From TrEMBL:
Segments forming domain PAC: 78-130, 205-257, 334-387
Native organism: Mucilaginibacter glaciei
Keyword annotations of the record: Kinase, Phosphoprotein, Transferase
Protein name per the record: histidine kinase
Catalytic activities: ATP + protein L-histidine = ADP + protein N-phospho-L-histidine
Gene3D superfamilies, alphabetized: Histidine kinase-like ATPase, C-terminal domain (3.30.565.10), PAS domain (3.30.450.20)
Amino acid sequence: MEDIYKIILEETLAGYWDWDIKTDIMFLSPALKRMLGYEVDELIGGHAVLQSLILPDDLPVAKACFYDHVNSHGVKLYNIDIRFSQKNGEILCINCTGRVIEWDGNEPARMIGCHIDVTEKKKAEGDLAISEETFRNAFEFSPIGMVLVSIKGKFLKVNKSLCDMLGYTAKELLCKTFQEITHPDDLEADLTLLQKTLSGEISTYQMEKRYFKKDGGVLWILLNVSLIYDRSSRPHYFISQIKDITEPKNAEAALRETQRRWIFASEGSGGGIWDWDLANNTIFHSEQCIRMIGFEPHEFDNIPGVWTQKVHPDDKVKYLADIQEYLDGNTEIYTNQHRVLCRDGSYKWILDRGKVIEYAPDGTPARIIGTHTDITDQKQKEEQLRYTLDMVSGQNNRLLNFAYIVSHNLRTHASNFKMIMDVVKDPDTDAQEKEQLSMHLQSVSDQLNDTINNLNEVVSIQTNIDIQTYEINLFNYVTRAIDLLQGDISRWNVEVINEVPVDCKLVYNPAYMESIIFNLLSNALKYRCLHGKPKVMITYFTDTDGRQGFGVADNGIGIDLHKNGHDMFGMYKTFNGNRDAKGMGLFITKNQVESFGGRIEVASEIGKGTTFTVHLN
């Protein structure tokens, strides 16, 4: 019988476990291991193996539930939803149930239980809660009127915008039907569309109509109505969106009366006019509008779509989307900026504006008029301004990089000179040691000379937009950095391994490359392993896109990325309490890498080390 229960648990509930508490031997069923992403021969051991997969935030709650079960001698159920981490890092929400089935006095001896994956259920519950809250907020705080109406027309729920619009309180409106406040001349059309919706002929409808306000005034509205069905697919209630269009309606007549004068004034100021009759699918472009792009009136067909065909491909999607947004009633006025192909093959920037001046009986736009204004000169000036700002920003970044290189590299050379001279002046230093130091002094001097040459090059390019690059040998630059830091390497007995190929060539700015490698290597030494043999490894790679790069990995004290990851490359950000840390090195390094279109990544674990990976351009 026990085997039958196990089969049922495996096949229907996804997995079970059996824990001998006294010996801390825990059996996990194959289905349970598969649920967590492991093979049958994995996850062998005691309760700690399974417990290690529980998310840290959920572990205290799980333990509390277990102790409640044990302390109540099984009266309180062990039943809780806990998040587990799968082998691949995915998070599962699992319903964990269990019961102590054997006791040694008051002490639990054996406990069994099962795990059910409820991730999708939890997600669905969360999505539903979000959806309901979203609808509630959208209804209550909508800037337009919203109302739920019964099948017979009684107001069931109204929002504040509608109350403000009509001058009623919510309590007063809930005692009325929409028929009572609708203008008699508009009621029949509304009821006809309502009936068509109930009969299934249409799913939604939109119309313009008039409401009576509490003070007796008349309000023109744009009404959008949708029918909501219950779970049995029967009509449940209507949801209506109500937009006050009194001002546009009152302005329509005045707009039509002044249309001729408006066209004359617009064209007199250099703009063009267009008039789109949606009802008859015709469009008119004024002579000024056509000549603006180099055509004569007889060369341009006034039919819908001709202008659209000339819109630049990169601008066409937004151009059409902005028109549709306005036609759908989502924007108060149509406006768009796009490029249009001229007769001579060039493109001009056009500011396009339009507004509906007539509506069809069903409330949809019937006629739109608008203007075309040539803004090419304005766009060119904006582009020049952006170019200038980018140039200034780039020069500022290079100045910051230069200051960093001076601060870090020259200071290191100076320190090496001082250290050597201090040893040379030491009376205990014998002649042989002084001779060796003199040779090292020559090496440091040569490296300082190279650094100064590179800095001179950086200075010379501060007024240029493009940073000069040359073919360099990455292996040599890594070797130079190792030599430069040899004092610290020897002092702390660090094993530095340069796995970059001897003939590794790449194109980069020499000063930047020297600075990047030096900073990453000096960081690895500074935060070296303190309880074992410190190691640093520099490697080279080519990624799947063919881009070159290198990595600097150490076995040092590591960085808590969960705590400090978002500040990792920030200016003046330090992480390990080192009094010598300035918080500038990684910030500048990232800036230098990205100035060539590259990127830098970090992986680290406390007590195990840190790896910086540089993807070059």
